[in-house]
Amino acid sequence: MKGLLATINMAKMLLTLFGLLILHQDVVEATYTMNETCAYYTGYIANPTNCKGWGACEDGVLKATGNCSDGYLYDSKKGICNYASKVQCATSAQNICENSDDNTLVAQPSDCTQYCYCKNKTIMGCTKCPNNQLFNPSSGTCVNTYTCPADSICRLIPNNKFAGSETCGNYLRCLDGSGTEGSCSTGFFNALTGKCQSTNPCSTVNTNTLAPDTSICSGYTETSGPQYFADDSTCYGYYTCESTTGTGIWRSCPYTLNFDGTISTCVQANQVKCLKNRCANINLTFVTDPSSSCKKYYYCSDGQQSSTSTSCPTNAPYFDEVLQACVPTVPSYPICS
Ligand SMILES: *[C@@H]1O[C@H](CO)[C@@H](O)[C@H](O)[C@H]1NC(C)=O
Ligand SMILES: *[C@@H]1O[C@H](CO)[C@@H](O)[C@H](O)[C@H]1NC(C)=O
Ligand SMILES: *[C@@H]1O[C@H](CO)[C@@H](O)[C@H](O)[C@H]1NC(C)=O
Ligand SMILES: *[C@@H]1O[C@H](CO)[C@@H](O)[C@H](O)[C@H]1NC(C)=O
Cα 321–26–285 angle (5° rounding)? Predict the structure, then answer.
């Protein structure tokens, strides 16, 4: 099965082989919500939970949502409500099946290694492509190379529109749900205006240094040598004290590490249940919400975590910060306990 069979033949063949398709949903990728997409784009976007739905992004947040009228679906590639027969919906597989003919194979929009089989407007089952291949919904086959839109900012954005990149100051040119990164010929891309400008619109991440603290060292209990105290505003900073009457000097843990006050050491971020902004000193797109027993995750933009955290889906209820994905079993990191 090299991915060259026609859609319907492949579905029939799988049905004959296994009697029923296997429901196989190991890992569901964390994907951008509408609100998260709005941090990078101004204009209309698709609603990932509803084939008719659209959202309007302005000033970095979702300002309005709506549905296309009956007979129309939101065409995420064109950015308009279009005749249902002309739209390949980019939302959940169930949503796609509701708008697909019998015996079609459709992509599992949140996981490019999976595809689902539709009949009678319902998902009959989902399965994984063999040999780590990816499902290309245009050809309806499993292929070796395919740019997966599931984890792209462009997933909900129309074709040939420009969105901000995670590398702040660069842009993504969106096409079929995936982006090609580029930079302005002069200046920096501003995601909220969609234009290049001469000044860098990106807030500087983690270059802040906290002022010396004159009271924190009263907690010093050593007989000699330095003692370290967590600061109360970051997950990654701490004060160094040399005596009870000294002044605490602020320092940052190395990039990607957080400070564990209980052992006075910088450790991997997933070892510390820090309830402050966890996006600041780390190179991750999504971080665990430590108050959720690893059932929710935040999204990071410019070193800031989103104002609210998002739940993992019920079939993969735990967020794995290292895999950057929702998984079926609780990860063993201390942050999950
Ligand atoms: C989007 O984000 C804004 C600002 O963070 C918040 O007020 C609003 O409730 C969010 N909307 C949704 C649908 O999550
Ligand atoms: C759009 O339709 C969905 C599904 O029918 C519904 O849940 C949602 O409330 C509608 N949204 C608006 C803005 O009408
Ligand atoms: C198709 O789905 C409808 C509504 O759920 C159901 O009434 C009908 O029996 C189904 N038909 C077949 C052939 O499964
Ligand atoms: C983030 O991590 C990835 C993979 O570990 C690495 O390739 C990339 O250069 C890192 N980016 C920064 C800004 O450190």
Answer: 25
> Amino acid identity of 144?
N
3-state helix, strand, coil in the chain (%, to 5): 15, 35, 50
Cα 128 to Cα 111: distance, rounded to the nearest angstrom? 9
Q: Is 61 near ligand 1, meaning CB less than 6 Å away? A: yes
What's the pLDDT band for 201 if we cut at 50, 70, 90?
low
- Kindly list the domain boundaries of the chain, sorted by start residue: 1-156, 157-203, 216-271, 286-336
pLDDT tens digits for 58-117? Answer: 877 888 999 999 989 999 999 999 998 888 776 777 777 887 788 888 888 778 888 989
Determine the 3-state secondary structure of 16 from DSSP. Answer: helix
Question: Ligand 1: which atom is nearest the Cα of residue 308?
Answer: 5
- The answer to whether the CB of 62 is under 6 A from ligand 1 is yes
- How many whole angstroms from 283 Cα to the centroid of ligand 4? 6
